[in-house]
Specification:
- With 112 residues, the chain is α/β, with parallel strands linked by helices.
- The protein has a domain of 73 residues: Tetrahydropterin Synthase, Chain A, CATH 3.30.479.10.
- The chain has two helices and four strands; from the N terminus they run E-E-H-E-H-E.
- The radius of gyration is 18 Å and the shape is elongated.
Length: 112
């Protein structure tokens, strides 16, 4: 039987929904730049606990996964690579301010 532990990391980010329109075909409010807060949850599994009774040392998750999220996603603008506005914003869209999304994100993924 596997033992599961989880930890979460909250991030804030900006984005827009390309092609979003209202019921009469006008640009919808989501087609404009706006922000969200999100929570990423990490699920880690082990067949047995380590020598001190843990699935994984949570400081390892913080150092590796949470720090990665803070450095590359938190307080960034996330734009789809096909967004026609992305190229015109090139001067302020370089890392560390911008992430190109090459596919739709699947928020719930097992990563450990």
């Amino acid at each position: 039987m596997k033992i599961t532990a989880f930890r979460f990391q909250d991030i804030d980010y900006g984005h827009r929904v390309v092609g979003h329109t209202d019921s009469v075909g006008h640009p919808g409010k989501c087609s404009h730049y706006h922000g969200h807060s999100g929570r990423i949850t990490f699920f880690c599994e082990a067949e047995k606990l380590d020598s001190v009774g843990r699935v994984i040392d949570f400081s390892d998750i913080k150092k590796r996964l949470c720090q990665y999220l803070e450095d590359t996603w938190d307080h960034h603008m996330l734009l789809w690579q096909e967004d026609p506005w992305a190229e015109s914003r090139q001067k302020w869209t370089q890392p560390p301010y911008f992430c190109h999304l090459t596919r739709q994100l699947k928020i719930s993924q097992h990563i450990c």
